[in-house]
């Protein structure tokens, strides 16, 4: 060997081992941390993934009523109920598993933060379940693929054994009523259970029903029902239900017509399924087939034979003590969360200090011009606290890097999750507070507000109607706010008609109560419609309850016209002062009263509708903020209009912070808890 070759041998060997290690690392690029957001994906993930790959499971994973893997799931952290994007991202996942019924806004936020998502279709058949299991396993890695094939082979073997046992039996004629007054027909989980458990679903064969439908009333009494399959508590799901469990599950139907007249109900000829068994859409449904078949055909099963109990994975569960603290509230965690609490403390101190000086300034007529500046400072302090707080703790350095977009992860947390939520709170608070101020000036009544007069309910009814229709209309960026504006205008016109004879307190309140009831009935009808899917129901509930969760930059763009409406309102402060003197007095001073009233009512309605379209129904903001400002500044609208805009935004941000500190309360609940007592105090004061 030449001297030159000897010199090159060592560098070549080093280069070779470096390339080999790189290839090994690349080939092992499996997801290291996976978060599951639904019960169905929990069951699939626990079946095929390594313990160390599972970062967190859904909230319901530990609940034995809803989950087939509740015992195994207790070894892992779980997401909070109704977890938002930040609650998911605090586990630093590489992959997040969703169902196709998960909220689209939540999925979009996770994707924008640079995390890979995997959305599973619904599992209507076993073939689709096998397909989902294989897709997930392929995404995770080779070991997962081996486990998936083993699971599928085991399930297929059990199904073959069950079919052999039921080959010669006569199908039992059954129905499966529910306390929701629905009956499952063809193309449902229950129909799939019947096909594999030796049963005939009379809702399909006699009723000809497809999907979940209302029962046909008295016609049920003519159906030859041999057994009724109901939902109840079956314990561990393996042993047959005892008499006490059957009695408890059957009790509601003994009071419902026509079930209480059915011989099968009166004679307690019942098969019982647990909640997770009735809705199982993973591979554990094979256990449900066996459990139902054993109750319907006990003669073909050996004495003491136990089937249907979900078997836990045989692999060892890794200890999770190192990850347990991430499931604690942000204020109870160690490390970087202390700085989050420090951020909140500083902002709260600044806000309280400025509020104190605002009250001091308000006691002097010569210092009231300082109040708007103090309100702006309070708003900035609260905005700083809102950006600094969250489920993902940030140190000051991390916060600064994220704010400057020098770190992708922290930048995504601040700019994709927290900033849109903050801006929506600012826009909606400003819109609702200024709208309430305008309504009080227009009706010359201190109790007028968008929520009490039904304008918010009208906007909600318009938005809910579009969501109920579905299709491209519900997905359009402009259709939803347009429908909300239309609904708000309808409510406003009705209020004007009802209050035409006089705008006294009693008349306005009665008109608002009637409108809220009627428009609330419209929203409830759309929500209760059997043609509405689960995904749209979740959207409708969001708009009816009000909230700032899962807000994106599209929602900010949707609410951007609020800025224009507020800008058009600001020059109307002096004419509103003249209008408060009376219609005739204002006309004598040169005010075009009809034109001014049209401007005020249009701006107020548009502001309420836009705020409702992006945040849902949030009440009492338009009542609380203008009243407090009148106590501080008096009745001069030239000061009240800009201060209402700023203070409304600050009030909304403060309520959002309080809701997040209280464990994730919706902002509509927080404003109601504050505004309800305030409204009662106003009534007593008047």
The number of distinct helices, counting runs of at least 4 residues, comes to 30
The amount of beta strand, in percent, is 5-15%
Task: Note the gap between the termini.
Answer: 106 Å
Low-pLDDT windows of residues: 10-29, 311-342
Q: Which structural class should the secondary elements be placed in?
A: mainly alpha
Mean pLDDT: 80
Secondary structure: number of strands: 10
* Strand order within the widest beta sheet: 2-1-3-4
Shape: globular
| Radius of gyration, in angstroms, nearest whole number | 31 Å
Q: Helical content, roughly?
A: 55-70%
Largest sheet: 4 strands, parallel
Textual characterization of the structure:
By secondary structure, this protein is mainly α. The protein is 59% helix and 5% strand. The chain contains 30 helices and ten strands. It has helices spanning 3-27, 39-48, 70-73, 85-89, 104-112, 126-140, 142-165, 189-197, 202-205, 243-250, 263-266, 275-278, 285-296, 337-362, 370-388, 396-403, 408-443, 455-469, 471-475, 479-498, 505-528, 534-545, 553-559, 561-569, 573-579, 583-588, 593-615, 621-633, 637-661, 667-685; strands spanning 34-36, 54-56, 95-99, 116-120, 172-175, 183-184, 199-201, 212-213, 227-231, 270-273. The strands form three sheets. It has a four-stranded parallel sheet with strand order 2-1-3-4, with helices on both faces. α2 links the parallel β1 and β2 (54-56). The longest helix is centred in the middle third of the chain and has 36 residues, at 408-443. The chain is globular, with a radius of gyration of 31 Å. 45% of the residues are buried. Residues 10-29 and 311-342 have low confidence and may be disordered.
